[in-house]
Amino acid sequence: MKRGSWKIRIFIGAAIIAFAFIQRCNNKEKNPYTGRVQNISMDTEQEIAIGLQTAPEIAQQYGGLYPDERMQAFVDQIGNKLVNNSLARETPYQYDFHLLADDNTINAFALPGGPVFITYALFSKLNEAQLAGVLGHEIGHVIGRHSAERIADSNFWKTVTLGASVGADAGDIVGSIGRTTLLTNGREDELESDELGVLFMINAGYDPHEMIKVMEILKSAAGENNIPEFQSTHPDPDNRIEKIKAAIKKHQEALQR
């Protein structure tokens, strides 16, 4: 490779990386509902659009919707109760709750903009208060804009990796840093959503201690496949339980003041 060509590559790579960092700084904004400063590269309308477009495909991956309108209505009732009694009602998001037919996979998740899903496998293990805890946790992901934040982080690291690969052969290293950052953010997202879920349960009149039982159910369901916290995007259930206890104490004391 000619020396001049090498210098041009270095310059272009550095320019791409600099652009990524400038864009990241410009994307900083304070979440009006959590107060946390985040790196977000889309507005709420785009979040809603992504959720609406992705929901049907996601549902099909879990066998579609559970074919019992009464159970779906029950999920809707609990979800709407949580929204209507919390700050979620003040947000522009379009909350929609879905009971999925999958009776083997224990899971619940939310898409950006408001769609919330829970599999029948998990639903069947929960009482009403515990279901409220799970749905409240997922509403917390929406309000916390966690998907939008992960998307922005992913795009940032892709751009940085591109710049590094142009200027040198360091793309794999930078990409690794990006993945580590996303995993760390994922654990923080779960803890933030746990606390929001506790708050929403209290607001809706549910015993927040039932959230602790949800963690025990998840830990039992994982069995020998339980993954240590440092290897997972989700915190270890035992760690989450301690954080949930602290959140319960915090919000109950706040109500008593």
Automatic annotation (TrEMBL):
Keyword Protein transport: no
Cofactor binding comment, as recorded: Binds 1 zinc ion per subunit.
GO CC annotation terms, alphabetical: membrane
Domain Peptidase M48 span(s) in chain numbering: 72-246
BP-aspect Gene Ontology terms: proteolysis involved in protein catabolic process
Domain of life: Bacteria
UniProt GO molecular function: metal ion binding; metalloendopeptidase activity
Xref: InterPro entries: Mito/Outer_Membr_Metalloprot (IPR051156), Peptidase_M48 (IPR001915)
Segments traversing the membrane: none
UniProt keyword annotations, A-Z: Hydrolase, Metal-binding, Metalloprotease, Protease, Zinc
Pfam families assigned: Peptidase_M48 (PF01435)
Coiled-coil regions listed: none
Cofactor(s) needed by this chain: Zn(2+)
Family statement drawn from the similarity comment of this UniProt entry: Belongs to the peptidase M48 family.
The protein, known as: Peptidase family M48
